[in-house]
Every structure is written in C-alpha cells, then in structure tokens.
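Service request form, structural biology core

Requester: graduate student, group of Dr. S.
Request type: structure prediction, single chain
Budget code: on file
Notes: please return the result as structure tokens.

Sequence provided:
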Amino acid sequence: MAFRNLTALALCAMAMPAAAQDRGAVSAGLGVTSFGYSLEGGYQLRPTLGLRGMIMGGFSIDDTFDYEDTAVTGTADLAGGAVLADYYPLANGWRMSGGLFFSNTDVTGSFTQGAVTYDGKLAFEKDVAPLLTTGFRTGFGSGWALSGDIGVIVSSLQASSGNTDPTVQTALSDTNVDLADVPVFPFAGIAVVYTH
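Core staff response, request fulfilled:
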C-alpha cells in the first residue's frame, strides 16, 4: 500500500512545477523510509542537478520473517545511510536518482529450513551497494516541499551462522542460493524538506 501511494504521488508530481531550487540552495528534511526515520540534507549544484545525503534508523521489529523456504524468528534492526545525485530531466517535480546505500541493517534470530533450525543472521550481501530511485519533489509553501523516492538497492540478502554442524551448513548454503535469486531489495521514502 505504501509503495502504491508513493507511486501515485510521484506521478502527480511529474505534472507539477518543481519547488524553486536555485544553484547553491541548501535543504534539510525529516521523513520516514523503509529503513526507519530519516534525516536528510541536500545541496543544489544547478536547477536540474542536486546532491542529497540521508541517515536512516530507529526501527526494530520482532517478528517471524519468511525468506524463500526459510523462516526467521527474531529481530530486524533497520538502519543505514545513503548519498544520492538527483537529476530533474524535465525541470519539473520528477527526478531520477542514483548513488550508494550504506547498510547497518540485519535480522538476527532462529532460522528454520525444513527440519533444520539454527541461530544466525540475515544481512545485505554488500554493506555498500548501488541505490537507484525515481521520485518527486513538489513545493507546498514558502521554502517547503514534499519529497519522495521509490526504487531498489542492488544487493541480495545473505544468511550466516556460527554453527559449524554440516547439516546446518548445508541448509545455510541452500538458503543463500535461494536468496541470490533476488538481486535487488526495495526502497521507499518520503520526507518534508525546507530549502533556503
């Protein structure tokens, strides 16, 4: 549902003029992403090109998570950072962005695959991975704007465990083969931004 709403907002923003972003403008914002609450800052190199940095975190979820044929009962600690270059090709509210995601996210707990159960950790295979998004930025007041992104982190997940039992290692290997079949992870975020 969140992805659908963010996509609808992005499509609407494509028809709207972008919030005024002069060369040298500095912005700061607060929001929420799929990796927790976010604090972001930006600098406008020129009206159609800007740079952004984000720090995300503050979400911890205790639950049972299903990944392919493996169930993980434990805690997901979501956090990370990102640096992005934003390009506004039509000089309106729509943008394409690319950069790097720095992961501080993992899921720890009890893994169950078939009849095998073991303690382990699930994390991104790459701690630093490409981040590709599309999104919008549209003004709603003097200096204020609504900003949103939807996209992917180009990295699969990988499970690990300190348990050296051969049966566990075989199950772990099977889990990682399944996880490698999904080479990207979804990303979404929305923020209120002030520019001066």
